[in-house]
Predict the structure.
Amino acid sequence: MKLNENYSNLKESYLFSNIAKKVNEFSTSNPDKKIIRLGIGDVTLPLCKAVVNAIKSAADEMGVQSTFRGYGPEQGYDFLKNAIKNYYAEKQVELDIDEIFISDGAKSDLGNILDLFDKENTVLVPDPVYPVYVDTNIMDGRKIIYINANEENDFLPEPDKNIKADIIYICSPNNPTGAVYSKDGLKKWVDYAVSSNAIILFDAAYEAFITNEELPHSIYQIDGAENCAIEFCSFSKTAGFTGTRCGYTIVPKSLGKLNKMWLRRQTTKFNGVPYIVQRGAEAVFSPEGRKEIQTNLNYYRENAGIIADTLTRCGIKFFGGKYSPYIWLKCPDNMSSWDFFDYLLSNIQVVGTPGEGFGKNGEGFFRLTSFGSRENTIEAMKRFETLIGIQ
Ligand code: MLT
């Protein structure tokens, strides 16, 4: 037996597990201190009523002989795929339901999709980046190259024709920086991928936060993307499914074999998302569901506004927050991002995510999320303002 030695090239633990461990240690030795978590992008509002009702009635169906269901289609039920197809059609994107694959979330699919690609491919990721893109490729032993996302390019790097890559990751609205590509910006990546026969893995997990319809929600709103891109999306951030688990991946048939390969992979290694959960996800697209999730998204948007206002008053430079639940701020006093993490945790018990955890260009930056409760967000920002003052 030989181990996959690529694992020894990974950092010892996944970023968010590492942070959780540090916070738990602090909490054990300071049991009287109230910690406010604005670190991992986990939602706090409950599932909306339309979703809960759909889940309940699906559970009832499962308890009755005539409506009970066993194994479902691995790639998802047509009722949910049709709801997604209609959602895309509103954005002038025509999908065939066989191009839509339901899964337990974008994170799993972003990792699993790599089964379809040879280990010899070169991977291009922006730096800073959601660590899953990097870690899953390290596990496979692929060569990874980085493209700089930084203040100079507003954290929206453009393709460089001199760089040759086969698999390209793009996340917009971006995790961690909150930056959003314009249609022109994405078009450059699509043209680059088409001309170099590369594939773009487009993470659209935060698309629901976009309120400016000039900005693309889906890469398929860009001409030519159907020939070079796979898109991943999730109900986690859109509709509070972080614990309920449901997402979807679009693999266009115009990508040739990839659509059939993904079907083959999923039917072999995956048994589908529970019927009950898929009914809940379907309800996200119902008229009531859409209204209710907008109410929740607005709540998080207002939290982002509270954080942004505080940072502005403190004179701290930041990015994101407008069309994203993430606020990416510059650590004051040239502090390193982990020092700033420790500083906030020990002085005001506010947890964020150190930018360095997302890559070397994240050093000196810090990520806060707007997914906290209103009360905690206000309290965290009060403590922050008192500690940091005016820079
Ligand atoms: C994050 O905080 O970056 C996200 O919650 C991680 C995820 O969605 O897996």
Q: What stands out?
A: The CA atoms of residues 207 and 217 lie 5 Å apart. DSSP finds twelve helices and 13 strands in the chain. The mean pLDDT is 97.
